[in-house]
Design a protein that fits this description.
Helix 3 packs parallel to helix 5 and helix 5 packs parallel to helix 6. The chain is α/β, with parallel strands linked by helices. It is globular and about 50 Å long.
Length: 258
């Protein structure tokens, strides 16, 4: 009988990222299993957003490696050096990594339905009728079935963010990345976005979420990663992290938000 455990879906190994002399990520390492929800927490400037952007190769790295589904993202290794892949190859890799940003980044000239269908039709070359049917179902899932023909300017912030989530899901990604998905929202619309993310978690979507919503992280995360000053301070189960953090820095951060 085999004792081998499945390989992680996402693996981040000793990743370093600098802007000139300023080191943003100082050798970050963690794995995310298929179906797992991991939340990144920590003070502003700790490197959380940079980390998720590196996973999608929206930021380059200076050292280390990031793999999704066993494939190194953004680079190939040659004689111990990282060589960046051509943009066409990176574009293909990004199709399996959904990304939802703080700002919704919807195309203002396309309807909600158009925003969701444009990627699968133009990038994946899928049949328009099939994509449209799937997009309408995604709008139903994010509770916006009646907004298919609305333009972003006709939607609230929470509605735009839910369209952005549906747009990312339309590409059928293996993992979803969320960068502070509620930080640009009015307080009354935060809950409707968090509810959609909770439903994705219940359905088994692999997710890495940068969030300052600690109650949400406690409810939805399997594990929480506390970052500070470009380093991982602590990794643990959400229940343990919030009830009995091991690190003084984690304890101080959580206390500061009460």
């Amino acid at each position: 009988m085999s004792n081998t455990t499945p390989s992680p879906l996402v693996s981040v190994e000793a990743v370093h990222k600098s802007y000139g002399a300023l080191e943003i990520l100082k050798g970050i390492s963690f794995d995310v299993s298929r179906g797992e929800v991991v939340c990144l927490i920590g003070p502003s400037g700790s490197g959380k957003t940079t980390m998720v952007r590196c996973i999608n190769h929206l930021e380059t790295i200076q050292a280390g490696r990031i793999t999704v589904g066993g494939e190194m993202i953004g680079y190939r290794e040659h004689n111990g050096h990282l060589l960046e892949l051509p943009e066409s190859r990176i574009s293909l890799q990004r199709q399996k990594i959904g990304m939802v940003f703080q700002r919704f980044n919807l195309f203002p000239n396309l309807t909600a339905l158009g925003n969701i269908t444009v990627g699968p039709v133009r990038v994946q070359r899928r049949r328009e009728a099939e994509v449209r049917a799937e997009a309408l179902e995604l709008l139903r899932r994010v509770r916006l079935a009646d907004k298919a023909d609305n333009f972003p300017s006709q939607l609230s912030g929470g509605q735009q963010q839910r369209v952005a989530i549906a747009r990312a899901l339309a590409m059928k990604p293996e993992v979803m990345l969320f960068d502070e998905p509620t930080s640009a929202l009015d307080p009354e619309t935060v809950g409707e976005v968090l509810d959609v993310i909770k439903e994705l978690a219940a359905e088994g979507m692999t997710m890495i979420i940068v969030t300052h919503e600690l109650g949400f992280a406690r409810d939805v995360a399997d594990r929480v990663i506390m970052m500070d000053q470009g380093e991982i301070v602590e990794i643990g189960a959400a229940t343990e992290m919030f009830s009995a953090p091991r690190s003084d820095r984690t304890r101080a951060f959580l206390q500061s938000l009460k």
